[in-house]
Each structure stands twice: as structure tokens, then as C-alpha cells.
Amino acid sequence: MAKVEQKTTLAKSDLRDALREMLLIRRFEEKVEERFRAGELPGFLHVAIGQEACAVGVCRALEDGDVIASTHRAHGHALAKGTHPNELMAELYGKQEGCSHGYGGSMHLYDVQRGNMGANAVVGGGLPQVTGAALAFKMRGEPRVAVAFFGDGATNIGTFHEALNLAQLWKVPAVFVLEDNKWAESTPESQHSPIGDLSDRAKAFGMKALKCDGQDVEAVYKTTRKALEHARSGEGPVFLHLDTARLSGHYIGDPQVYRPKDDARRLRETRDPITLLRDKLGLSDEEFQELDAEVTAIVEAAVEFAKNGTDPAPEDAMRNVYA
Amino acid sequence: MAKVEQKTTLAKSDLRDALREMLLIRRFEEKVEERFRAGELPGFLHVAIGQEACAVGVCRALEDGDVIASTHRAHGHALAKGTHPNELMAELYGKQEGCSHGYGGSMHLYDVQRGNMGANAVVGGGLPQVTGAALAFKMRGEPRVAVAFFGDGATNIGTFHEALNLAQLWKVPAVFVLEDNKWAESTPESQHSPIGDLSDRAKAFGMKALKCDGQDVEAVYKTTRKALEHARSGEGPVFLHLDTARLSGHYIGDPQVYRPKDDARRLRETRDPITLLRDKLGLSDEEFQELDAEVTAIVEAAVEFAKNGTDPAPEDAMRNVYA
Amino acid sequence: MPELTYREAIRDALVRAMRQDDDVFVMGEDIAEMGGSMGVTQGMLAEFGPERVRNTPISEMALAGAAIGAALQGMRPVAEIMYEDFMTLAAEQIVNQAAKHRYMSGGQVSVPVVFRTQGGAGWSPGAQHAQQLEAWFVHIPGLKVVFASTPEDVRGLLWSSIYDDNPVVFFEHRTLYGIKGEVPEEIEPIPLGKARIHREGEDVTVIATGRLVHEALAAAAEAEREGVSVEVVDPRTLQPLDEEALVASVKKTNRAVVAHEAVTRMGFGAEVAAVLQYQAFDWLDAPIERVGAKFAPLPFAPVMESYVVPHAEDVLAAILRTVNKKV
Amino acid sequence: MPELTYREAIRDALVRAMRQDDDVFVMGEDIAEMGGSMGVTQGMLAEFGPERVRNTPISEMALAGAAIGAALQGMRPVAEIMYEDFMTLAAEQIVNQAAKHRYMSGGQVSVPVVFRTQGGAGWSPGAQHAQQLEAWFVHIPGLKVVFASTPEDVRGLLWSSIYDDNPVVFFEHRTLYGIKGEVPEEIEPIPLGKARIHREGEDVTVIATGRLVHEALAAAAEAEREGVSVEVVDPRTLQPLDEEALVASVKKTNRAVVAHEAVTRMGFGAEVAAVLQYQAFDWLDAPIERVGAKFAPLPFAPVMESYVVPHAEDVLAAILRTVNKKV
Ligand SMILES: Cc1ncc(C[n+]2csc(CCOP(=O)(O)OP(=O)(O)O)c2C)c(N)n1
Ligand SMILES: Cc1ncc(C[n+]2csc(CCOP(=O)(O)OP(=O)(O)O)c2C)c(N)n1
Ligand SMILES: [Mg+2]
Ligand SMILES: [Mg+2]
User: Fold this and answer.
1) What ipTM was assigned to the predicted interfaces of this complex?
2) Rounded CA gap, C149 and C235, in Å?
């Protein structure tokens, strides 16, 4: 556990790495939007633009062996948890080289080797499985933590309540990460939750709740470390409430008719986690451009990789139905 | 609403009526246990012995037009809401004269005319329907309240959370009555809920919570009046937490191997709502015996009525599938 | 006759019912400002306001249950479950509650509620956003089950469903929302339980639902070029099922194909085949063919997805098998 | 050979697996101190402690989901859902999650979990405590579905289910827990997907599951007295289905009856009938008969309940219909 103690703050170089990762996610998502609009990507896609600091802050705080379960808005989590952009992009193109070998798609990204238990297209669907994974860790005495991502909208579904209740009752090493972007699709928080502060959801289970600014990657990192320590030490699960912002539509192509025109614009100006971190680090335009060029090249390469990937054979559809 | 204002306390004569009703429920349930053990009653039965003050206190507080939804432990609620003991007993015997005409049975008691929307054998199953009934009242501007009964075990099921969240969000005139008898079948509260006080469940929705001694019928009545007033005035639903005790097994025939031997005995001595009320009213043995004889006769008559009831024809099973 | 899309036809039924009847209202996730994830309820918020075009949180169970509760109190709610896959979350309320209240109460109550939902593959949403689960609900006494395939049908059937005093599970297909068709000026209610013969034929009867009606019609046209005359029948209501019409058609053609997008195994086609082989045993000149999705979850990659779900060519192949023709 | 009840046989499989393998554990509502609402897990808490005989709150969805999550991390949980009716509450996790994880991940994970559940009428619990819903799960690729009818079968099949790397939905029947039968000293795993011929016969094949196996055997004995020789086959595993064995039997007898307690409409018998009429078309001398519950929820009053669910006499009547005999 010595390693745990050491990693409670981030050195400047770590922050620079975090920025790079966040920027990679941003550029990746922008590219996905572009390629979707160009008609190259099938399916139904949700980008995490604006929520990069949540994914990166949480995942950087994890130890080897810790696992995550993700949501429909899964790309950022997957990249932050270590899935190579090539494999992720290949998945979005439906290729065998994809992280789910073309069977999953945007909402079903898996990377078991790197601790991603899977993204879930059913809101709340992954939460009890995180409780169960943490239970397995506990029963086997392994010092691992299972982490669930979910959104504010997910706090309304019964699955959420049952999963958290069970986790607290059994004091399993789990962290439930609420990415509170104030929207569930077109539904603003005021139309889906009758409480001002979603941290209050944790009170129904007596679960320890921590809250921080989800646009500040350092805060997310530090608060996650605290949560992990609590969970790992056997004191039970933690509800980790991240205050974040959705800077794009709900899905790619969402005209956002339901959203006040200046809401996203205002948020982009004041709550963009990348701008915030760049300013905090005092990066010059040049330095930033350099970083940007670097990650942009990675994203371009990912598209190349994906396009050159192998299409599954039609009959491959009959594989993997059973073990 | 004038009527509402008037009924905030109970006169002594009202309390005596309440005692009579509670005693009727007790004797009814004891008779049901007896007839079940004698092999006369089919099905799966749960008696409400020990929880009579909850049913009576809540239902006496209701106005005409208010509705309830009940649980698997339904007999007390049905009687308190006005179903005639004959009709209830006839239902338990599976007769056409039964309150559900022999189609429902112990866990599916309906009496729509008297405002019983139905008992439910699925834990939590009735709760969203109470939210919906209350919504209908609100949409039509009717000054009616919908009331759900449920147990401590039910606070763990997703249905409960979703239903309460919706009710609070929409501020519908509903009251959610928790009969907290500390057991869910064989599972003690400590094994099903990680919090000391189940009133905390309401915090997840910011719902007004009221709590009182569920063995004190006057307290239940008064607290229910408060809850109804709140709900009826448009201020939103109320979580009404009644601290009660299960003096019998979970179901008739339950050997209760899981329960400390003296738990039920101790509760019978200290927390029997009928003894408590009798003492409060200072009833002499004679007076009590008189009351007892009166309700016992009603129960005996109900058994007679039920036994003389009409069995449905086998083919009646095909009626009422569709409207 | 005006032309409407399938989507507009649904909306038309909803809007007209809500105009004439205060008890009718719609509820569901993102149906208000956004107009529904499929755009069905677009514009309705402006006309009817948030009380009657009621946005709900992500709470499938409670929204279904609230609709049931309101129906028990005399309203006629139309609840939308965004994807059929999420019917699994509302199943308890629909199956144990809505379907059984009337029965368990010995006829005291009725539950006039409609659960609208949609699904369907063909756009690579993956395994959790396109399942076809209509067979589940056909198995449950107390429910009516509708699956409409054209604008005219969807409007007339939705109308009848809203005014039916029983709970109706109303299936729509994702890839049909954009198709156009003529509809009568005034709504003509289509009785639940009546099949529709889309095309008459002599050699084979294809009984198809949802998207497969259109695939079947395409296959029938193709078969005709091969000299095979195909009758295409859409039951439209899966419960109650118009067994009479299906059996009559098969007694005429002596051959049957059942086609739907749902997984073949334990799909609706199994029930139809079981009914037909029983009631038309002596008339059948060939085994009843079933066309449905192969036995796999829906894969993401388009080539695989397309392989799993059935198309016109699969229906055609089945038609030709029944008449013992090779192409 | 020792004699065990169906209940004891289930327990025996659980206990032996838990003794030999730390990854196996059981969880469910009231399974610990109380030993389960059907008494299946009685005594197990004392041997294995509360960690491995894990009592859960009333949270069907989360307990199913937690079992899936633990399975994804290499455990082999056996989760009990107290009544089949409550499978509706866990359906999302079983159908969208357990069944699809392996597939959606392109084969990266497996989900070795068993969902034990039970149901069945005959004791008047009413409409929400006795439904038979096995057909639902047969429709879902990725799940295996077992329904055992004897002590020997239930033990050997549960063993195989625990050690299968796929999610298995394991149905038990409420009225079978008390029946006794001989079982081998050591557990003999019964492969999933193998039917069992309970009785050989020449004239009619009855394919029955669960309680109806016993009703079918009684009917067969009675039919024999009428001069009709009946073969009784229990598929035991509904998915994968041993089509070969069923078809072979029907090709021999040329007549078939399918019997289960679930509602006939859209019940498992529909699938069997659809398969048989297809694969044994030229061998069938009579329509395939289906015996199942009538199309109603389960009523409370015993006379009505008994009318709705099928009995030996219903199987017998179907047998005689297929050979065109009146009694
Ligand atoms: C059970 C379920 N209901 C509805 C949906 C459709 N849906 C997908 S995302 C979404 C909104 C989710 O909101 P939130 O949890 O806040 O996550 P965000 O999209 O904001 O990241 C909805 C309603 C779904 N996927 N699953
Ligand atoms: C969804 C569901 N799960 C399990 C059961 C089985 N069951 C019936 S009553 C009960 C315990 C209920 O406890 P509580 O809500 O506290 O009510 P009480 O019995 O104490 O009145 C259980 C587990 C059920 N009926 N419904
Ligand atoms: Mg959100
Ligand atoms: Mg209780």
C-alpha cells in the first residue's frame, strides 16, 4: 500500500500528462463527430466533450487491478483506462481489431486486460455488477477496487439504488462516480430529480459521499484517491460526486432544441476542463500547440488504423454467443 | 376541507372505536391462523398481528375518496379501509362473495368501492401505482390522497426509490406509509438496510418525513392527519414512518427458526398495540371482554358466511381476463 | 387522402385523442421538449403543456407503474418506453400488475393503459438497443399486443388501443418511422384482433409482422417473377390473434412462411406455426417455414448485424423452399 | 443408491460444489438463517458462513447484477430468485447483461452464473406467485435454460450449470421439492442439451417439462390401459434444445404431444411444435397437440386454479386425440 500513500498529489509533470490525455480524448471525440457526420461510423454515439477531467482524474488515481464499468458515454473512460486509441477507433468502425472485436460498438467498449469491465448502454446497468465485482475482491481478500461511472440521470433508476444499498450493506470496495453534467439527454436535472444536491442520494444508504469540481482534474484525482483509500481499507464504498458539464449534444447529431442557446457556449467559455488546466499550468500557445499536434497525430493514426482494419465475416456473428 | 380541520384529534369514543377495530383485526387474524392450520384455507397467508394500530390509525384518518394500496400483509388494511369481514373471509375461502370474488386471495384483496386499490404480492409493486393514482387526482384537481403501505424490506427494492422520486418530483398528493416491523421475512433490518433509521430513505428525494410510534393508534392517526394535510394542500407527498412490531411469524406456519426465541415474546409483552390502547383507555376486564365478545362474534359470523359462500365454477376462471 | 409518415401517424392518433379527451395523456423519457427519442411526440408539448406531455426521469418501472395507477383511477395514459430493451425494466409492472389487476380483483377494475415502445436493428446500435421482445408479452394473459407496420395501421390501431379498456403493449419499429402512406382524413379505428391481407396470392402465405411485412412484400414481388403467387398477411395484433384469418389463408395456399425480425427461437413465429400446423394440418403441403433473427445477440459491425437479422431475400428463400424451388 | 428429495438433491449439488470450490457461493433473499423460502439452502449457513451463504435484501435486480459482476471476476455465484414472478424484476440484468457480455466483448469475458428460481401452481398462491416464465429466457441468445423434473436430474443438471461458463437460468418447480428419487452416490454431471427418455413407446411421443413430466407419465400409464403406447421425453434443457432426440422420437411414433404448466400461448410447446412440424413433417400422422395452462392469470380459488393448469387427464386427452380415440 506504500504506493497508495505516495500518490496523493500530482506533480507538475503529472498534470501535463493529464492535460495531454484530456486533449487526446477531446481530439478523439471531435474526430469521431466528424467521421460520424461524414457517414463513416455506424450506430449511436455519445461523446464526452467537457467531461475529460472526470475520466482522466479518476482513472489516473486507480491502481493496477482496479476495474471500471462505464456508460453509454464511454470513449473517454476507455481511453483514460488505457485502451489504445487505435483499438477504440477500430471498434467504432466495427473492425476485428477493435477493443470489442466489432461486436460491441461505441456503447459496449470492453478491455478486460486493462481493467475495463465494459461500457453499458442501459442506464444504471453496470452498477450492480460493480457491486458484485467489488464483492468478489472482498471475498478473495484482494486489495482491488471496482469503480462505476454513471450520470445524474442514472440516479433515478431503481438499479442505482439497489446497487448502492447492497454495496454499503456489504461494505464492498467500490466507488460510485457520478458525472453530474446536469442533463439526462434532453431532461434537465430539475425535471428528473427533486433535490438540489445529488450527493443527498447517498444518504439513503448512509454511504460516504465526496464531492468536487469535475472540471479540475487535480481535484478529481485527489478526491478519487481519498475515495479509493476509504474503499480499499475496508471501510466501505464511496459516492463520488463530480460536478461537470456536457459541452456537446447528448448524442452526435443532437440539435439540442431543448437547451437554452447560450448554455453550452457559456459552459465552453467558463467550464472547459482543458482550458482550465492549460491556464493553471500556464502553458504558452506554442507549448499547447505542440501537445495538440502530438495528440492530433495519434487520433489521425487511429483513424488510419481503423480504416485499414479487418471487417468481420458475416458468419462471425455466430461466434461468442456462448463460451 | 372543513372536515379535514376538525379531525385532528380523537375523542375517547373514537379511541374506543379504534380499539374495537384493532381487536376485530386481531381476532380475525387469529381465526385465519386457526382455520389455515385446520386445513380450510388455501394459499399463502400473512397476518398483521401486532400491526393493527398502523392500519387503523392511518385508515381512520382518511377522507372519503382517498385510496390505499396494500401489501402481502393485507387483511388489516382491508378491514380498516372498510371491507366487511364477511367479504374478506369469503375471499380467503375462495368464494364468489369474497371481496375479489375468489380471483385474488389473501395477497390480492381489492375493494374499489371502499377505496382499496388492491393488495400486492410483489414487494413494492403497488408504490408506483399510488404515485400514478395521486397524479390522476392532481391532474383532475380532485382533493384526494393516495396512500401506499409497505414494509421495511420494501425500502430495498428499486421500485420504492423510483416511485418516491417520481412522487416528490411531481408533488403528487401521496402518502407512503412504512410499517417498519424490523423484519423482511427472516431478514432482520441490520441485514437488509445499512442505515439505522429508515426515515433517511426519504432524504434521497427531499421528501418530507414524519415518524411516530406505530403501536400508538392515536399517534398514528394524528401523524397521518398531518401527512394528509400536507399532501392534500399540494405541498407534495409525505414519507410516514411507523415504528411497529411483527408479533407472529412472517407467514402462517413460519417456525421462525431465524428469530431469537424471546423477541416475539418480549414484543408481545411490551409492544402489543391492543394492550397499550386498552391500558390507555383504562378499560376494565369486563369492558374489554364485552368488546372482545362482540368482535369475536363478528369473526365467527364471517367464517360462517364464508363457509356458506358459493364456490366459483371452474370455467369462471376464464372470465375477467379482459375487460 | 393525406399522406403521413408512420411517425406522424402515431402522433396524429395521440394528438387527436388528447384533443377530444382530457383523460388521455402521454408520458415518457425525453418526450416533452425533445419530442421523444424518435421524434414521435414533437410539437405536442407546445399544444398540451407539461402536465399532459409529461417528461419523466429514467425510471421505466415507476413510469409504467404510474401510468397503471393513473389508469386505475380512470385516466387513459400512453406511456412510452424508449427502447424495447428497457421493457425488461418495466416488466414487473406490465406483467404482474397491469395484466392482472382486472383478473385478481374479480373484474372490479380495468387498466386502460398503452405502453408504446420501439426497437429494431439495421442501424448498428448494438445488443442493448434493438431487441424485439414482442413474444414475451404474447405469453401473458391480460395483455393485448399490437405491432403495426404501416402508417394507416399504426394510427388506427393506436387509436383503438388508447380506447381499449385493457393494457396494450404497442410495438413500433425503429426503421419504419420514416415510411409514408396514405391515411383516411378522419381516423378509422382498426379493431384489435383483425389481420390484414396486404396482398392476395395462391401458392404460399407469408405471415409477417413489423418491418418484415415490407420485406415480405418485396419477396412476394420477386417470387411472382419466379412464378410463385404469394399472399402476405399481417396479423397486426399479436394478441388477440386473428387465427381465423391466418388459418383461412393457409387453407387456401397450403403453404406458410412466418416472418419477423425477432429471434426465431421462441419467437412469435413459433406460436403461429404451432397454431397453423394444428388447425390446418390436413391442408399443409410443406413444413411451415420460420424466418427470424439468427440465434445471437445483435452485433455492432454492420456486416454481422445484417447477417443476424432477416431480409427480403431470406423470406424469398423460405417461400421458394416451401414450393420446392431452387433459384 | 441413496434416495433424495428434489430439494435435497439441489442442496447436495450446491454443498458439494461449495466444498470443492471456493469460487462457488450462493446468494438470495432469506437463504441464510431461514434456508430459503423453499428450504433448499437449509443448514448451509452453518457449514459455510454468511459470506458464502449470502442473504440479500429484497433487490432482485441488484442481486442478479451483483452475481453477474462477481462472475465477471471469476466467481461462480448461484443466485436464487425466490419466485419466477420476480424474474421480471431481474430481467434487465439477466437478459441485457448476463446474456450479452460475452458477445458484446467479442469473447473477452464469460459469465459463469446460475440463476435458480421456482414457480408453479397447485397451492393457490394467486396470480403473482406461480407463473411459469421459462419461455421468455429460451428466446434470449446467450442464456442456457434448464428445467429439471427429478431428483437425479436436478442434481446432475445443477452441477453442470454451476460449472458451465455461461449464464444458466435454472427452473425448479414448487410442487416437486418433496418428491423422492434415487441418485448415484457420487454426482454424475448431466450435460446441458441432452433430453431424457423417461419411458419408451411406439404410438405417441409426449414431450414434457417440469411437473408435467410426472403428469405425462401418469397419462402414459393410463393410455397403455387403453392400448396406446406412449413415449415420454423430458428435454431437461430447454436451451440448448436436444432437437435431435425429440425429432428422432417423433419420427418413430409419428405423433406428438407437448406439455408444460406454463400458458400454452407462446409457451415453450410452441417452439417444440414449430421445430417438430418442420423437421418431422413427413412423419407426422396427426397435428401436434399442445397441453399447457389456459389463457388466464392464475386464479386464487382452488377449483379455478385447477381448471387453468393442466393435469394428467389433459395430457391423456391430448394423447387420445392424436390417435383419434374417444374415451
Ligand atoms: C434504462 C435506460 N433508459 C433510457 C435510456 C436512454 N438514455 C440513454 S442516455 C440517457 C440519459 C442519461 O443521462 P445521464 O445518466 O445523466 O448520463 P449523460 O448522458 O448525461 O452522460 C437516456 C435516457 C437508456 N439507455 N437506458
Ligand atoms: C419483489 C419481491 N421479492 C420477494 C418477495 C417475497 N417476500 C414476500 S414478503 C417479503 C418480506 C417483506 O418484508 P417487509 O417489506 O418488511 O414487509 P413485512 O413482511 O415485514 O410486512 C418477501 C421477501 C416478494 N413478495 N416480492
Ligand atoms: Mg447527465
Ligand atoms: Mg418488515
Assistant:
1) 0.98
2) 10
